[in-house]
Amino acid sequence: MDQAGDGCCVLDVSGVGYEVFVPLRALGRMPLSATTTLHVHTHVREDALVLYGFTSLDDRAAFRVLLGVSGVGPKLAMTVLSDLSASELAQVVARGDRGRLEAISGVGKKTAARLLLELKDKLPNPGFESSVSVQTAAPISDAASQVCDALTGLGFSRAQAEAAVAKVNSKQGSAPVETLLRQALATLR
User: Fold this and answer.
1) Are the CB atoms for 132 and 159 separated by under 8 Å?
2) Among residues 110, 115, 130, 114, which one has the least CA distance to residue 83?
3) DSSP letter assigned to residue 5
4) Domain limits of the chain?
5) Phi, psi of 166 (to 5 degrees)
6) Which among 35, 148, 169, 178 could disulfide-bond with 161, CB atoms 3.0 to 4.6 Å apart, if both were Cys?
7) Which of 78, 83, 34, 85 is nearest to 56 (CA)?
């Protein structure tokens, strides 16, 4: 993997190089020549296909939630996650710390206020990860995994998605993906 100063790295996957943008906070901790796992978000625009990589599923989920905020694009979302991890962002939002968000380059007063307002119920509560039961952390079926992926794609954290699927899955057993997704969404509202 080759790194550049702008958060971009070239990831070698079986001899094929992929340009991936990674938060600077994570990029500095990634080894240059060792095997690295990145959780990738593919952003499709009319004129480009851009890959954004994250060292944790929570950071990728936070990125996707940030993209759902009015006026926040991938560049600003990456800037936020270069400064704060997903859990730190959740804590800042939970505290309503507008000043901390304004300290991030590119985030002004209006954007900080909008982030606090729109992220309030979309990020997990700080410490939520530690309260997830052992049953939730257990391996899940393929259908349940697909439902978890769909829920994180909709902006829910991985922990929230797994908890909702665990609730529904314990009642349904081996229900089709569509049924599990519908019922999991109902538990999250």
Assistant:
1) yes
2) 115
3) T
4) 2-54, 58-119, 132-184
5) -65, -40
6) 148
7) 85
d(CA 74, CA 176): 33
pTM score, whole prediction: 0.61
> Considering only the top CATH level, what class is 58-119?
mainly alpha
Task: Please give the CATH number for the structural domain made up of 2-54.
Answer: 2.40.50.140
What secondary structure letter does DSSP report for 174? Answer: S
Q: Classify domain 132-184 by CATH architecture.
A: Orthogonal Bundle (1.10)
